[in-house]
Design a protein that fits this description.
It is a single chain. The chain contains five helices and no strands. It is mostly helical and 136 residues long. The N and C termini lie close together (8 Å).
Length: 136
């Protein structure tokens, strides 16, 4: 695993969590939606209560999965922060933290460290080279 891949794990994990949260919201909306039909002839229908129970069980399972993913994300961030702290150059640390823990765009990072974007890219490359031994 390269330094960049290692440092990007938290971002990817967070993306997966957001995707699952969106799925949970959509599923919740479907389960709790009440549909009213207007017919001329009243029809006696019974709602399948067991189907609703099954959907609720699926929602709870998805929520548990999200909770596990959040726990993993927290561990990834701890590992990433520990790795970044081993980088000696404080400017490199800041670039790595802003990029891989705060997910800031390059323009923001450049502004934060008062450098041009191209200088920031170069510093980032240097920072990644200083992380490589810690990842191995």
């Amino acid at each position: 695993m390269t330094a960049k891949e290692f440092l990007s794990r938290a971002y990817r994990a967070e993306q997966r969590i957001h995707c699952k949260l969106a799925q949970l919201i959509a599923l919740s909306d479907l389960v709790t939606r009440i549909t009213i039909t207007l017919d001329r002839v009243p029809v006696s229908t019974s709602r399948d209560v067991h189907a609703t129970d099954g959907n609720i069980v699926k929602m709870v399972a998805l929520k548990d999965e999200i909770d596990q993913d959040i726990d993993a994300l927290i561990e990834y961030k701890k590992e990433i922060l520990k790795t970044i702290r081993h980088v000696e150059n404080p400017e490199h640390q800041m670039i790595l933290e802003l990029r891989y823990l705060c997910y800031k765009p390059w323009e923001h990072i450049a502004s934060e460290i008062q450098r041009s974007v191209s200088q920031t890219y170069k510093l980032h490359e240097q920072a990644l080279r200083s992380v490589t031994p810690a990842v191995s």
